[in-house]
Amino acid sequence: MIYITGDKHGNYNDVVTFCKRHNTTKEDVMIVLGDHGCLYYSDSDNRTKHLLQKLENLPITFVMIRGNHDRRPFASDNGRELRYFLNPSFTGWFCVDKAYPSILFTLEYGWYWFTGRHTFIIGGAHSFDAPYRCYMRDMGYKNYRWFPNEQLSSSEMKDALDVFHLLRLKKYSETPFYIMSHTAPMKYVPDDAKKPVYDERFSSDFSMEKWMDELEITVSDNGAGMTQEMIRSVMAGKARNNGEDRYSTGIAVGNVIDRLELYYKQKGLLTIESDGLGLGTSVHITLPVEVEGTSE
């Protein structure tokens, strides 16, 4: 059986009760959707060791997705290892400590499989209370922590999209799937959390949440390629076919751009990339996510 919880922040008393009430075994899996608390303190900290041992002793297997208040599992001072699990309940790559084999930390992003359903995992999130946490720590309250690499970097987000689309389009295109993460698209972030931060060390960086608000479609080829001048001409609808080079006039691209701007009330939703002649071309279309039941 698969169970899901989250925001435990190191307090698993209710999970202890749950395991007793439902007579769980190590064959059962509890997915914790971020802020699990197992990696809040250093690996050498007794609080970390005590919590991990407590969870290891429970009759259940834990799958930990990283939240903004969790250290990255590879940032370890005791040598966790990367292992691939293939069993009836779940399949995928996990970071595992040999001393706690029933506590599995997911990668920062990637495809997993849980009892018949493909699932894309995304770790990390934005801490809107980061200035307060650092202020309290500066005042001597050492229990307040903030991790600068809490969110995926821009390169990680780009790679995550590539990983998502690669298998989604080529392998899982006909099957339903889940996305599990500690954060959510920007449209669901509470207004109170969007207030500007007045601290020179921080900014209201919702890059991950904005990234999750969008769907990017990329069409690429390995053909003739384009120069930057050609791209600018096509985007402006000014390219001309000389009967020999067979490049587009840009009219169709202009129509697509106009339709995207008319429908979504945004500019810059279509871009073209090429490394030059003979190196192929990629066209990117970014669509704001519209969720059923919302007015946005």
Describe this structure in words.
The protein has seven helices and twelve strands. It is α/β, with parallel strands linked by helices. The radius of gyration is 23 Å and the shape is elongated. 25% of the residues lie in helices and 24% in strands. The strands form two sheets. Strands 1, 2, 3, 4, 5, 6, 7, 8 and 9 form a nine-stranded mixed β-sheet that branches. A three-stranded antiparallel β-sheet has the order 10-12-11.
Write down how many β-strands occur, each being a DSSP E stretch of 2 or more residues. 12
Give the CA-CA distance, first to last residue: 36 Å
Catalogue the unreliable spans: 291-296
Strand content: 15-25%
Q: What is the alpha-carbon Rg in Å?
A: 23 Å
Largest pleated sheet: 9 strands, mixed
Q: Which structural class should the secondary elements be placed in?
A: alpha/beta
Element order: H for helix, E for strand: EHEHEEEEEEHHEHEHHEE
Q: What is the approximate shape? A: elongated
Quote the average pLDDT. Answer: 81
SS field, number of helical segments: 7
